[in-house]
Amino acid sequence: METVTLALSVAVLGGLASVMRLGLARWTGWLPWGILFANTAASFLAGVELIGASVASPLIIAGICGGLSTFSTFAAQTVDFFRAGLRVRGTVNLLANLVLPFTAALTPLAFG
Question: Is there a domain that residue 54 lies in?
Answer without folding.
Answer: yes
